[in-house]
Design a protein that fits this description.
By secondary structure, the chain is mainly alpha-helical. The chain has helices at residues 5-9, 18-51, 62-82, 87-92, 106-121, 128-132, 139-144, 154-162; strands at 94-98, 146-150. It has one domain (10-154). Strands 1-2 form a two-stranded antiparallel sheet. Helix 3 (62-82) crosses helix 5 (106-121). It is globular and about 65 Å long.
């Protein structure tokens, strides 16, 4: 079925697809990992200044891994609870809502964050619902009672871009003819 052009441009409140969700997750992973690396480097630098000994942490240190996982948990749980979207989701124009269409609650955000690793741990089978179901809900969405939708309206954004304001009209003093700088001859 071919939809009319206007219907194809508006995606607001439609369930987000796999490509949008994967791209948002990739952006989030880059942001979270980059911020974490900078924080760890900063702490190592300050610690080396204080102790006068070089300090280095790597992925084999279990403390570093636990702190990274805690940072991931806080990032996703707080972002979903506070606004329904992470930085990557905001960039891609998607957000998390409750399955009934209301805003996701902090409890749902917490459950979604805890259930999110299950989708990976089941050899990625937790993500199959995004491709096969009409409402495109992954395992962690089903457990938390959430869904991911497009949060922007492409048609409205396009129309706002095309609208141009009229330049303000020049005001002439009352009683003076509009000559626009031309003198009558």
């Amino acid at each position: 079925m071919i939809r009319p052009p206007a219907a194809r441009l508006s995606f607001q409140d439609h369930f987000a697809g796999a490509a949008s969700r994967l791209a948002a997750y990739a952006v989030d992973l880059g942001v979270v990992t980059g911020a974490y690396i900078l924080a760890v480097a900063g702490v190592a630098f300050v610690a080396s200044l204080i102790t006068n000994h070089p300090v280095s942490w790597d992925r084999t240190n279990i403390v570093v891994v636990i702190i990274y996982l805690a940072w991931l948990f806080i990032y996703f749980a707080y972002s979903w609870a506070a606004s329904g979207k992470t930085f990557g989701m905001a960039v891609l124009g998607v957000r998390v809502i409750s399955a009934d269409g209301a805003a996701a609650t902090p409890r749902q955000a917490l459950i979604r964050t805890l259930a999110f690793p299950l989708s990976f741990l089941l050899l990625g089978l937790g993500f199959v619902g995004i491709v096969l179901q009409r409402d495109r809900r992954a395992l962690h969405d089903l457990i938390a009672g959430t869904a991911v939708i497009y949060a922007w309206d492409a048609r409205a954004a396009r129309l706002r871009f095309l609208v141009r304001e009229n330049p303000p009209a020049r005001a002439e003093p009352p009683g003076k003819p509009d000559t626009h700088g031309l003198s009558p001859t």
